[in-house]
Amino acid sequence: MTIELIKENEIEETCEMILRARRHSVLPEYYPPQSEHLTITQDELERDMEEKMKGDHFYVAKENGAIIGCGGIGANKGNFTESRIHTIFVDPAFERQGIGRRIIEFLEADEYAKRAEKIVIHSAISAIPFYRKLGYEHKNGELHFADGTFFLEKRMG
């Protein structure tokens, strides 16, 4: 498996993988029917990805040329001491093979992570145990929930 910066011509394939992963892992009982987690379209996702690519570092994980995972990192709201990891997804056919962990470790080695005092992640409820295994805890030690996600953080250094 390789992890590399996404190329413009990989956006569509990456978004298709993200939608497969969302359908597989999002638990509808935790989200209202109108939630973005359940209703986002391919076009909306592609526009969102293009925006993230402008200022953040967005990577894809590939196996034999196929995109099997992705993730991004950037400054958290322009803050140079705090970074944000986002859009972590693994194709359902490749889950539980350590790919998500490798993507997070790769992002934690990125220049945005190296300069940060802490990294924040917005997590679906189903992913909280995964992030906690990697050292992320509830932001400021408290359970924060907004817009369908939980806020976790990891102190760096």
Give a structural overview.
With about 160 residues, the protein is of the alpha+beta class. Helix content is about 35%, strand content about 30%. The protein has 6 helices and 8 strands. Strands 1, 2, 3, 4, 5, 6, 7 and 8 form an 8-stranded mixed β-sheet that branches. Helix 1 crosses helix 3. The radius of gyration is 15 Å and the shape is globular. The two termini are about 30 Å apart. The mean pLDDT is about 85.
Could you outline the blueprint of secondary structure elements for this entry?
Elements: E1 2-5, H1 11-25, H2 36-39, H3 42-55, E2 57-63, E3 66-76, E4 79-90, H4 99-108, H5 111-114, E5 118-123, H6 128-133, E6 137-138, E7 145-146, E8 149-155
Parallel strand pairs: 4-5
Antiparallel strand pairs: 1-2, 2-3, 3-4, 5-8, 6-8, 7-8
Helix pairs in contact: 1-3
Brief sketch in words of this structure:
With 157 residues, the chain is of the alpha+beta class. It is 34% helix and 32% strand. The longest helix is centred in the first third of the chain and has 15 residues, at 11-25.
Compute the separation of the termini in Å. Answer: 28 Å
Helix-strand sequence: EHHHEEEHHEHEEE
Major beta sheet summary: 8 strands, mixed
User: Which residues sit in consecutive blocks of at least 5 with pLDDT less than 50?
Assistant: none
Number of helices: 6
From the alpha carbons, calculate the radius of gyration and give it in angstroms: 15 Å
Which geometry do the CA atoms define?
globular
Give the mean pLDDT. Answer: 87
The percentage of residues in β strands lies in 25-35%
Return the structural class: alpha+beta
Provide the helix percentage.
25-40%
